[in-house]
Design a protein that fits this description.
The protein is of the alpha+beta class. Helices cover 30% and strands 28% of the residues. The longest helix is centred in the middle third of the chain and has 21 residues. The chain starts with a strand and ends with a helix. The mean pLDDT is 96. The structure holds adenosine-5'-diphosphate and magnesium ion. Adenosine-5'-diphosphate binds next to strand 7, strand 8, strand 16 and strand 17.
Amino acid sequence: MKVLIVGSGGREYSIGLALKRDEAVEKIWFSPGNGATDQLGENLSITDYRDLADFAQREGVDLTIVGPEAPLVDGIVDLFKEKGLTIFGPSAQAAQLEGSKIFMKNFLARHGIPTARYIETGSLQEATQFIETLEAPIVVKADGLCAGKGVIIAPTREEAVQAAQGMLSGESFGEAGSKIVVEEFLDGYELSVFAVCDGKDYVVLPAAQDHKRLLNNDKGPNTGGMGAYAPTPLVNEEIYRKLDERVIRPTLKGMEAEGMPFTGVLFMGVMVVKGEPYILEYNVRFGDPECEVLMPLLKSPASELFYKAATGRLAEAKIEFHDRYAVGVVMASKNYPYGSSEPAEIIVDEIHHEELAANSHISYAGVSRDEEGRLYATGGRVLICVGLGESIREARDRAYMLVGQVHFVGKQCRTDIAWQALEA
Ligand SMILES: Nc1ncnc2c1ncn2[C@@H]1O[C@H](COP(=O)(O)OP(=O)(O)O)[C@@H](O)[C@H]1O
Ligand SMILES: [Mg+2]
């Protein structure tokens, strides 16, 4: 099987790594990939999706997997399908579950899926009236894609009104904020649950938890994610069952009934309040860094999971996961997340410790390679050190042992990834 992976991050690298160890896969391309994905396959510099589809047709690509949300919302899946190509991901219409928070909230409401009480509005007056009825803190969300920055948790009603005003005036997020969602604050703990869906059937992956804040003890600014681990002990059979019955099934049924069957990764942002799961949001692709800890837990061939899902045949697949734990620690560049950083050469010490070598690896993200083959950190989240083990502690220890083998000027990482699981 020949596979094309769209994207350039650690998420796409980890999907590539999973496909690399799959005997059914003979060739992998990345578009655009990064300075390390060229060790797993071949990088392409084709930016236009039509040209990319032409390439896929010409080269006989059997399966295309889309990592990030932007190409999905832009309709890359529709374009590939028009040409008769097999591609894993939702249509542009279905991707609105992520592309528009209003679409998502109204969909949840139509299908009775538990979520925070809300209104959608383009009027400051309406927003203010609703805010008056809520207890602080109050959540204000821009409708459109804002690269993870479009949600404000306002500690007071006044600040909620200010946030709504900033968004509605276009000041905060431009067009993406011209309509907003105002909702009640849910006080609980958060989970990321991923289901790989083929339109009708689905496979639920081990629940993961990510760490959004830059610093230990969940302090500092929000980031794209500084680490993740799975499976998390914060989820139990009962929560899985409730998610299954109240969320995943009605979502797939609802999307099908509304003429946009959902194929791809349904990423459920869940808040558990007193044992009851509520949907905070949907994303329509894997989280990054969650993907980097989930892919190594996949026991079945990765091509089987993605190909069967893309062709509506998940029911005939038996997808299995290792009964193990994975912990991923992100190493970021010096000025992350505030600004760019000078390129810095990455040195990874040779790992002599056999057990560590066999149970850990790096997924590369913000890296480039020079002509001599030297690897450089080019900014943002540079790489993620993944440790595997029979317990979270063992997996975590291995991830941090690997972190100790990686050197570049200005490197930063959290030292407390998976703390919730270790305290639980
Ligand atoms: N109703 C809510 N109650 C409490 N916290 C919330 C609520 N909605 C969002 N949050 C917090 O804000 C974060 C971002 O919101 P989310 O809806 O996931 O938007 P996005 O990921 O697009 O920024 C969530 O991960 C959660 O921590
Ligand atoms: Mg989110």
